[in-house]
Amino acid sequence: MEKELIEKLYLTANLTDKELGRLIENRTNEDFALLSERARQRCNEEYGNKVYMRGLIEFSSYCKNDCLYCGLRRSNKNAQRYRLSAEEIISCCETGYKLGFRTFVLQGGEDAFYSDDLFCEIIRSVKKKFPDAAVTLSLGERSHNSFKRLFEAGADRYLLRHETADSEHYGRLHPKELSLENRMSCLKSLKEIGYQTGCGFMVGSPYQTTDCIVKDLRFIKDFQPHMVGIGPFIPHKDTPFGEEKAGTLELTLFLLSIIRLLLPKVLLPATTALGTISPTGREQGIKAGANVVMPNLSPVGVRKKYAIYDNKICTGEEAAECLECLGRRVKTAGGELVVDRGDSKIPIK
Ligand code: SAM
Fold this sequence. Notes:
This protein has helices spanning 3-12, 17-25, 29-47, 86-99, 116-129, 144-152, 167-173, 180-193, 210-223, 249-262, 272-277, 281-287, 300-303, 319-332; strands at residues 50-53, 55-60, 103-108, 134-138, 157-159, 196-203, 227-232, 292-293, 336-338. With 349 residues, it is of the alpha/beta class. The chain has one domain: Alpha-Beta Barrel (TIM Barrel). The strands form 2 sheets. It has a 6-stranded parallel beta sheet with strand order 2-3-4-5-6-7. Strands 8-1-9 form a 3-stranded parallel beta sheet. Strand 2 (55-60), helix 4 (86-99) and strand 3 form a beta-alpha-beta unit. It is globular, with a radius of gyration of 19 Å. S-adenosylmethionine binds at residues 69-70, 72, 107, 109-110, 138, 140, 160-161, 163, 202, 231, 233-234, 236, 273, 308-309.
């Protein structure tokens, strides 16, 4: 058992690359029991048992990119495409606000229909109507100037998973027009501009090795993001990775705990993908140190169409039902869903 390494990680919030690799490669159930106990302890010290909720509005399933893992990729001719109007997006926020959401996450494929002007208008309207709510964007890669304009319009946070910190691995998951260099430069811009910034990666994506994961963890530790989104890779049948194996619950939970201990103040979601590979995935995520959940606030009629992977959960329920069920789940994991913006405790710049 790697008890010493786990205690060192708990006490110093760091390990060497070699030690991280060893902890991951040699992991046992016993290790996970201690690691997740320490991670939960750390999370409670920083945030108590509060679990912050973010209303996810998946505004467009159009995407100009062709990422090999994603069901929204432009080459997927079977994908059902939709886009929400500004009014529809604001109406989702209205529903969410009444339910207690104080963060709205606008996420979508990279869809040129939404110009900077249109996004700025949407952000301004949401902030005007709900001044005590935060707006998080997850729009993919844009120019520094575009990120700046959206920030100046009132956006508070930006989620852009780095996907993998190994450039060769990045090249195997993406078409050649996308590069790790540009992804990283976007992340740098976001932080410089003043966004609460989130990076992250898929666990168990094709060709991922322990070495790749160690690079991901080192990048996360060095970059000091405010949020980290990790979830298992899940194949989508109409992509080149349709026959690949999904990432495991067990490794995802193990990594959630490591990330909590590396960055004690990080906002760490128990993702929908985790709930998709296991019926109790999100509860287990919270027990392992996660403190954010992101239920779907998109109109019920479009939820199935935002199919980034197969068998995604919560595509049929109304927002209120979804939230009630989630509240119960969070409680069974010892957490408490709260009405709060849930800002990061890490300084902005
Ligand atoms: N277009 C934006 C971007 O690229 O950041 C946001 C939308 S994108 C669909 C959001 C995230 O979904 C990606 O960062 C990726 O990690 C995740 N994702 C895509 N396909 C997935 C799959 N098959 N399994 C698990 N996660 C996936």
